Every structure is written in structure tokens, then in C-alpha cells.
């Protein structure tokens, strides 16, 4: 066990039984609690920090992968105690309380811990049924009127369980970032295969029980638990949290066969399970078959995070999915965000709330055309008028430092955003950093040649390895490290930096470090 794992799983001990459980592991049943199995098998998490509060999360699940999705818990609500402390000893907690974990929400816990100091580090833990949870580390944002300390933010996407081990999550935790963004495909909905590094349980997930069980399977992974326990997260889903390549209420295909009512029920179940398993504020509580997720999170005067939802409100992919030549992608009526979210984004960018405007979203933003003139209809290339409106809005509002943060494509990319992609000499108006996948796509290769690079000179960097992006953000610059691991089919690979770029304040685009 690494030092980080030991710290996360051994710190704290409100009761003797709880301390014994932490030392013996999630399956331990100490004699003091012999009739009650350990409930914190899914670890702990925090998220959505502002300058005085943060969401604390856990879910009680002594048998996490039971097929009924209830994690082995009885049909009863359970009281869960929680504590926040400024140090790891918990000698003088600064906040505490009791939360009722309800059977109807699969005993998920969402505590809004308030009254905290700005720009401060904290530790937290839970107690239930005679056991103590692992200890998590979290922090608050700076006051909205102060810059705050320089900070490290990492972001990731696309963690297919069957494709490999979550070593990249562990290496991210080793970096001890101040904030982690997850930009979609936290789970995958497909059924078990026979050729994966490890296997899903059951067939393709459709029901609420299915989705709950799938999240539980993923969250039993110790490397993912370590990444959740080391820092607060901001999350947005992409498609696989529901179904591959869906668009608003339109399915990409008819597999599995579902009636309209069954598809609506599937979306409803998927969003409920997503909320239950993420450290989200109550404002993101699902409403029927939708979930309110686009939001702004301020990090003092240093940065503003504009977290987008490019699935629930988009028009269906033009000309069907896939990479193709499609004139309909230029139709002014088409949008990947929907009109309301587009207006919300441009309004927020125009406020200039921080030195850096960081747009966390799901799919490839810059133009990426191949030799046949074809583009990916599931990316912003399939919604070119929508992209043009946002880019023109950035120019019109004189947004000083727009940086798009992207997942989805299972490879690392570093891109300049151009006023006119057909004219390489046109102004660079922003920057895009694309993280590779955690595991999706398998090990990848050592390839670093930019695909179709001669046709897209604004695409500056490419890597086919798995990993994440680590950024260090100051008022003067963002330093972006593209971190990668050589293998995910074997556990424990080291992480290396494939390339480092700098984005200077007031100078959009990538510069060599």
C-alpha cells in the first residue's frame, strides 16, 4: 500500500471498531461490530467548493455490487455522523453534524459543510453503524475578492472499467492537486465482455438498480477512491453515463430496443444514479428525466469555471454520427448547448470575474478536418454555427484568457483556437487543453504525430497514451503538463510528463514551457 493509501485509509478512529475496520480493510468485520458489515466500501469524496463551504459525500454499501443496487443495506434510513477538521487529528473539529442517509436514495450522503474559512485545507470523515470512514482531504475556494494562493488543478475523463486499471487516478492523487475536474464518461453503460482486463457485472445497464450497481463497481476501485479522497471534484457527465452518443431525447441507435417510455425511464434512472454517486450540491437534484448541471464556480479572482452540459440540450448530431462531410453542421439553427445555456455562458464570460475563464466541457472544440474534408459530427465540428457564435462572443466581449478544457476523445491534444480556422494567420483567440482517457482505448501507443496536422496547424500537440492533464494556475500563467502512463493493462505504471505548455496571461494560445 502506498503512503497515500495508508494515510487515506488509516487516519482517524472515532471508535475502536471503526479503527479496526480501517486497518483491516473494507471487508473486515471486527468482533465489536460482528453483526454489522463495514458500510464505507465506496470511500469518500468532496466537491463543489466555494469560499465558505464544500459538499462531502459517501454512500453506505456493505455489499456494493448486489444486483438490487441497494449495496446490501436494509430498507431503512440510517443516521450518519460527519466531522470536518483543520488537521488530521480531528482533535478540534470545526464543523460536524448528522445526516440521514435514505433508502430511497441508495443511502447516499450529501452534506453541505458550511461556515468554513476561505482558501483553507480541511479533513473530513463519517461515522455510521459503529464504523468510521476513510479520511478525505478537501479545501475551500478563495474569497471572491482575493486572488488566493497559486493552485494545482487536474482534469480527466473516460474511465472504462474493462479497458484497464485506474493507475492514472492514483498518479493524480499522488500529485495532491487542490481541485480535480471530471469531464465525462465516469462510467460506461455496456454489458460484460470476455476480453477486458476486468469485467463489468451483468448486461447493458438500463434500470436504476443497474446504474447504482455500475457506479458501485467503479467506486470500489482503490485508485479512484484515492483520487476522490485527496481533493474536491467538479464533475459533468458526457454520454456513457446514460447511453452512447445520445442527444437530448434522441437515441443514437435502437440497442437495446426500448419504447419511448422505457427510454425516458432509462434517462431518469441514469441521472438519479449520477446525482447519488457524485459530490454535487442540492441544486443539481434531478427533475424527472433531466438534471440541472451547467453552473459557474468561482476560484477567487484568479479563475472562473464555467461547467457546461453538451448532451441534454443539443440538437441531434447532423447527418448521423461519425466522421463525414456534412453541410448541415453549419446551419445557424443548430446548437450543442441549447440557446439558454449559450446565452448563460456568454453572459458569464462577459463578466470577467477572474483572470482565467476555464470552460469545462465534454467534446472536441477546435476544428479538426481530415483530407476528405470530413469532421466528427459528435464534436463541435458537428455544430459549427454554435461554435462560431461562442468564439465571436469571446471576441466581442474581449475575454482576456478563455481556456476550453475537454475530454471524450481518448487522446491528449493541445490546440489554439483561431478566429478563422481556414486562415492559419488569423488571430488566436483562445486555447483548448484536451485530456486523454483514464483507461478507454487501452494502452494506446507512443505516437505523438498530430493526425492531419498539416491540415490543422492550430492543433499543436497529440499523444495516444492514457493519463490526465495537470495545471498550475497563477495570475501570470497556466502551466499545463500532459501526464501519461505507459500501460493500463498492468497495474502500477509510473506517470511521466509527455509535454508541457504555458499559456501566458493576455496571450491566448500555447507557448513552449
Structural class: alpha+beta
Number of helices: 8
Q: Tell me the strand percentage band.
A: 25-35%
Mean pLDDT: 93
CATH class category label of the domain at 143-156 and 163-181 and 293-513: Alpha Beta
Poorly predicted tracts of residues: 1-33
The major sheet is characterized as: 7 strands, mixed
Q: In CATH terms, what is the fold-level topology of the domain at 143-156 and 163-181 and 293-513?
A: Purple Acid Phosphatase, chain A, domain 2
> How many angstroms separate the termini?
34 Å
| Mass-distribution shape | globular
- Level-2 CATH architecture of the domain at 143-156 and 163-181 and 293-513: 4-Layer Sandwich
Pfam families: PhoD, PhoD_N
Keywords: Signal
Organism: Kitasatospora phosalacinea
Signal peptide: 1-19
Protein architecture, described:
Keywords: Signal. Residues 1-19 form the signal peptide. Helix 3 (167-174) packs parallel to helix 5, helix 4 packs parallel to helix 6 (260-277) and helix 7 (339-351) runs parallel beside helix 8 (384-396). The protein has a domain at 143-156 and 163-181 and 293-513: Purple Acid Phosphatase, chain A, domain 2. Helices cover 18% and strands 26% of the residues. A 7-stranded mixed sheet has the order 11-10-9-21-22-23-24, with helices on one face. A 7-stranded mixed sheet has the order 12-13-15-17-19-18-20. Strands 3, 4, 6, 7 and 8 form a 5-stranded antiparallel sheet that branches. It has 8 helices and 24 strands. With 513 residues, it is of the alpha+beta class.
Amino acid at each position: 500500500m502506498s503512503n497515500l493509501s495508508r494515510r487515506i485509509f488509516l487516519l482517524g478512529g472515532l471508535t475502536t471498531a471503526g479503527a479496526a475496520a480501517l486497518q483491516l480493510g473494507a471487508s473486515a468485520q471486527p468482533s465489536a461490530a460482528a453483526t454489522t458489515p463495514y458500510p464505507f466500501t465506496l470511500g469518500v469524496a468532496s466537491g463543489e467548493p466555494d469560499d465558505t463551504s464544500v459538499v462531502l459525500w459517501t454512500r453506505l454499501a456493505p455489499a456494493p455490487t448486489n444486483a438490487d443496487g441497494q449495496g446490501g443495506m436494509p430498507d431503512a434510513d440510517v443516521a450518519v455522523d460527519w466531522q470536518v477538521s483543520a488537521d488530521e487529528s480531528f482533535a478540534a473539529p470545526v464543523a460536524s453534524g448528522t445526516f440521514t442517509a435514505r433508502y430511497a436514495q441508495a443511502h447516499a450522503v450529501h452534506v453541505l459543510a458550511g461556515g468554513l474559512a476561505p482558501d483553507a485545507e480541511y479533513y473530513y470523515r463519517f461515522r455510521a453503524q459503529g464504523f468510521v470512514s476513510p479520511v478525505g482531504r478537501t479545501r475551500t475556494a478563495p474569497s471572491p475578492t482575493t486572488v488566493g494562493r497559486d493552485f494545482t488543478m487536474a482534469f480527466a475523463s473516460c474511465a472504462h472499467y474493462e479497458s484497464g486499471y485506474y493507475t492514472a487516478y492514483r498518479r493524480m492523487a499522488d500529485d495532491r492537486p487542490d481541485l480535480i475536474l471530471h469531464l465525462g464518461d465516469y462510467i460506461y453503460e455496456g454489458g460484460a465482455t470476455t476480453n477486458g482486463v476486468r469485467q463489468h457485472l451483468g448486461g447493458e445497464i438500463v434500470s436504476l438498480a443497474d446504474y447504482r450497481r455500475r457506479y458501485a463497481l467503479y467506486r470500489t476501485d482503490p485508485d479512484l477512491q484515492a483520487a476522490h479522497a485527496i481533493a474536491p471534484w467538479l464533475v459533468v457527465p458526457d454520454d456513457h453515463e446514460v447511453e452512447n452518443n445520445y442527444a437530448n431525447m434522441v437515441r443514437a441507435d435502437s440497442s437495446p430496443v426500448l419504447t419511448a417510455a422505457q427510454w425516458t425511464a432509462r434517462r431518469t434512472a441514469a441521472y438519479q444514479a449520477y446525482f447519488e454517486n457524485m459530490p454535487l450540491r442540492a441544486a443539481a437534484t434531478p427533475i424527472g428525466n433531466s438534471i440541472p448541471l451547467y453552473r459557474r464556480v468561482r476560484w477567487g479572482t484568479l479563475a472562473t469555471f464555467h461547467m457546461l452540459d453538451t448532451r441534454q440540450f443539443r440538437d441531434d448530431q447532423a447527418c448521423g454520427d461519425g466522421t463525414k462531410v456534412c453541410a448541415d453542421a453549419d446551419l445557424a439553427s443548430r446548437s450543442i448547448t441549447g440557446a439558454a445555456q449559450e446565452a448563460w455562458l456568454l453572459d458569464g464570460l462577459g463578466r470577467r470575474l477572474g483572470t482565467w475563464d476555464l470552460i469545462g466541457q465534454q467534446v472536441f472544440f477546435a476544428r479538426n478536418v481530415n483530407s476528405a474534408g470530413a469532421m466528427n459530427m459528435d464534436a463541435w465540428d458537428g455544430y459549427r454555427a454554435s461554435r462560431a457564435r461562442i468564439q465571436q462572443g469571446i471576441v466581442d466581449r474581449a475575454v482576456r484568457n478563455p481556456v476550453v478544457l475537454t475530454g471524450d476523445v481518448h487522446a491528449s491534444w493541445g490546440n489554439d483556437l483561431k478566429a478563422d480556422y481556414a486562415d492559419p494567420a488569423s488571430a488566436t483567440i483562445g486555447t483548448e487543453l484536451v485530456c486523454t482517457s483514464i483507461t478507454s482505448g487501452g494502452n494506446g501507443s507512443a505516437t505523438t504525430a498530430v493526425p492531419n496536422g498539416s491540415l490543422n496547424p492550430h492543433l499543436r500537440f497529440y499523444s495516444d497514451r492514457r493519463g490526465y492533464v495537470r495545471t498550475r494556475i497563477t495570475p501570470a500563467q497556466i502551466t499545463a503538463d500532459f501526464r501519461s502512463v505507459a500501460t493500463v493493462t498492468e497495474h502500477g505504471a509510473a506517470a511521466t510528463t509527455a509535454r508541457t505548455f504555458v499559456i501566458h496571461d493576455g496571450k491566448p494560445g500555447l507557448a513552449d514551457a
